[in-house]
Amino acid sequence: MLLWLLPFGMSSAQNFDEYFADSTLRIDYTLAGSHSRQSVFLDKLNRFPGWAGRRNHLGELPLQGNGQLYVRTLNDRRIIYCHSFSSLFQEWIETEEAYKTERSFEHCMLIPFPKQPVEVEICLRNNKRETVCRLKHIIDPSDILIQRIGEEHVTPYKVMLEPDDPDHCIDIAFLAEGYTRRELKTFYRDVRTGIESLFQHEPFRSEKGRFRIVAVASTSLQSGVSVPRLSLWKHTAFSSHFSTFYSDRYLTTLHIKDVHDALAGIPYEHIIILANTGEYGGGGIYNSYNLTAAHHPKYRPVVVHEFGHSFAGLADEYYYDAHDANDQTYSLDVEPWEPNITTKHDPEKAVAIGRTEGGGYRAKGIWRYQKDCRMRTNEYPEFCPVCQQSILRIIRFYTE
Ligand SMILES: [Zn+2]
User: Fold this and answer.
1) Distance, CA 303 to ligand 1 centroid (Å)?
2) Radius of gyration of the chain (CA)
């Protein structure tokens, strides 16, 4: 049985009100550097009404991720909130370009708004899970330069799914990318298709009552999204494009602040951006966003696959024989934090899930559980048992 994933410890709900107000602090960072050197810089602080994130397990990480953020009290240095994430910047530093130049990427983190001054620490880790850089800064909640957003001019949105218990639910926001005002009907239809696809998969199907889903009408001036391969560039809400890092089907946006600005004042924790295009592709980054092409015939499996990355931190279980020996995403001498692949450096995890070789872009040296899974192909209809258990654990983490 797949019991290597230990349940989370109990933590008290009282802590939340002791330390936090019912508002969100959005911290904007710049992640910058090259393959050999990375840094994090503070950009801007924003406050908006309401906190849609968890109120329990505040001092525990859902998964390790490629980066972590810790919020500590100033007097006894107690961790009162933490969260984990991955970023496009950390994928970029393994590309050829990162050996030749330095670049910067936007990154936003949401934390509950502290009642007292706190210390915030953000750390980035490399593919050996070593911390490569960190930034510590103090936030004083009375700072007049914390910009108030989301109090007016909130992007229009519709609630598409109501949870059973609004106090213990996961908030997902679908955003429109490359849909003009006249195409909003199409957007809402695409959101309904996305929701239907997600809840066709276990464990989402059984846990449907734990989700609230909104569709946000973030319209674009032009229809469609940018396709560099075809020299096609569009003026869209989030300036997304295919061919990220020269991989034709990799669809991402570098404009993370635009994404979060469109969501200011709307309850959200997890983000699914639908791109109005028939091209094939998508991208999903753990606790950052899922961006999926909505008019390709493979839209349904792809939006669920990318949500596996962005929501549950699942790794790709596929690999390419041709170039995989050069793929640096995972270090073969370190156990990856992703719950659905193993390099067999964690004996317990190796026994529990390491049954089939190949995964994480490598044919050799990385193992997965079974032959097929939603994290491997678009054709297989379900997540494998390991992915299902990992997703269920994350759902419980946010809602119990
Ligand atoms: Zn799987």
Assistant:
1) 15
2) 20
The residue assigned the tokens 């699942």 is 314
Å from CA of 227 to ligand 1 middle:
30
For residue 364, the SS3 value is strand
Tell me how far the alpha carbon of residue 351 lies from the centroid of ligand 1, in angstroms.
Answer: 15
pLDDT band for position 325 (cuts 50, 70, 90): low
Global pTM value: 0.96
Per the structure, the count of domains in the chain is 3
Are 191 and 257 in a shared domain?
yes
Residue 2 lies in a domain: no
- Which domain does 57 fall in, by range? 14-148
pLDDT score at 324: 65
Report the separation in Å between the CA atom of 376 and the middle of ligand 1, taken as the mean of its atom positions: 7
- Secondary structure E strands in the chain: 20-33, 38-49, 67-73, 79-85, 103-114, 118-125, 131-139, 147-148, 157-161, 170-177, 211-216, 270-275, 282-285, 289-293, 356-359, 362-368
For residues 85 and 207, state if they share a domain.
Answer: no
pLDDT, average across residues 92-112: 97
Distance from residue 341's CA to the centre of ligand 1 (Å): 8
Rounded distance from Cα 58 to ligand 1 centre (Å): 27
Ligand 1 centroid to residue 332 C-alpha, Å: 19
Q: Report CA(67)–ligand 1 centroid distance (Å).
A: 23
Amino acid found at 363: A
- Residue 23 CA to residue 50 CA, distance in Å, equals 4
Q: What is the pLDDT of residue 14?
A: 59
166 and 298 both lie in a single domain? yes
Assign 6 a pLDDT band (cuts: 50, 70, 90).
low
- Secondary structure (3-state) at 273: strand
| Ligand 1 centroid to residue 193 C-alpha, Å | 22
Residue 219 Cα, ligand 1 centroid: separation in angstroms?
35
Cα of 245 to ligand 1 centre, how many Å?
Answer: 25
* pLDDT in the model for residue 7: 53
